[in-house]
Amino acid sequence: MSKFADAANTSHTLSLAAMEEASRLGQRTADIDHLLLALVLSEQTAGQVLRSFGIDLAGARDAVAAQHAEHLAAVGVHAPAPEPGGIVFHETDGYTWSDRALALIGRASGGDRRGDATAVLRELVAEPSGMIEATLVRLGTSPAAVTARLDEVERTSPHRPQRPIRPGELSGSSEAFIPAAPDAVWAVLADPARMPGWEPSIGSVSNAPAAIRVGDTWAAHARTERPDGKPIRVKPAFIDQVVELAVASDPHLIEWRFSYPDAPRANARRLRIQLEPAAGGTQLRIALAWERHPDRARRPLLGLLMRPVVRVVLWLQLSQLGSGISRVFR
Fold first, then answer.
1. Residue 53 has pLDDT above 60, yes or no
2. Res 83: pLDDT
3. Cα separation of 188 and 32, whole Å?
4. β pairing state of 96-97 and 29-30
């Protein structure tokens, strides 16, 4: 990826995760502590480095809460902390970054900094308030140790760009970290009835098999209403889908093909997810491809003009899929 693409992707994924974490506590402003939690969840090198110290999401949440309580007690405030709830970010609005978090993310993209999660983590462990340093100490490490390990990893692990999974097709790939063991993640992905819980475009399924086998099919129905009750516009021909299980290798690889029975000339969609064990959870490699219907005429010039838009759409779809699976376990 280019520096711009790295920065844009990192800003989007960290913002989403940080604001989801803020929403658990009824907060609308994501600050540096939420940014730390987002980095613990990051699929990039920064997240892998933090997790290599044994830092997981539950421990990081506890350390942040304890550090906040200590800070308040030091100024004579002993009010109980708000009880965390579920993630409601997608059901509410009005979220923003704090000024210091926004400035920190901006510095991570300045000069020769790449703007990726590693650059953000370097800025975060060096921030001057002492909040992150104290939280890392609670977690058994320090800013110096984190920085040293980042240096070590970056010397031996060159940047690896993401590439289309099927050259010549509308396709893309991404990675995501899930804070759960591969068997637990597989149990969710392999259950057709749970697909609406992580696939953002699907509102319900029907005729789902109890135990899946390659070649099984079932019906999926588009989400037509947002959590706040506002309608989602979906063309009638694209409300119903047929989902076919194309590949299933427990618990390492699963792939589905989505087609539209009421729009037989529409492009079909393939979604492929590879699961790999990782420190503190599971690393996902998510690939998405749109299959052009053979009867549809090719328009090379239009395709060339639309390529940047298609890339953005694919990136958003992949990001939403990774985030949706992560939310199931948070």
1. yes
2. 86
3. 31
4. parallel
CA distance 260 to 235: 11
Domains of the chain as residue ranges with CATH: 3-156 (1.10.1780.10), 170-328 (3.30.530.20)
Q: Which of these ranges, 3-17, 28-42, 92-106, 293-307, has the smallest mean pLDDT?
A: 293-307
Please answer whether residues 259 and 229 qualify as being in contact, where contact means their C-beta atoms are separated by less than 8 angstroms: no
Mean pLDDT is lowest, of 10-19, 190-199, 222-231, 255-264, for 222-231
Q: Is the dihedral of CA 283, 102, 91, 259 positive or negative?
A: negative
Lookup: tokens for 123: 């800025």
- State residue 17 phi and psi, 5-degree precision: -65, -40
DSSP 287: E
Q: Identity (one letter) of the amino acid at 271? A: L
Record the tokens describing residue 104, joined without a space: 């920190």
The mean pLDDT value of the chain amounts to 90
